[in-house]
Amino acid sequence: MKVWITKYWETQGIYEVEVDEPKDDGKDYVFTKPERGTLMQMFKLNRDAFTSKANARSDVLFKRDKRVKSLKAKIVELERMKF
Known about the structure:
Layout: E1 2-5, E2 15-18, E3 29-31, E4 42-44, E5 49-50, H1 53-79
Antiparallel strand pairs: 1-2, 1-5, 3-4
């Protein structure tokens, strides 16, 4: 099963990985298939990993807009400081 990972969107962007099917335990976690020299990683579906690229992209755009808004508020706060 292919998923698009957005957990590291600020440093690595969106990337595609092959994962095992999620187990039917109701937690919706997927695990990467470890290749030689790598470790298995765990991602939560619809938070860190998405089954469609369009959903992954919209999530990253939402996170980016939220981050920009936060940084703008921080800039305003810093500009108001008086010494």
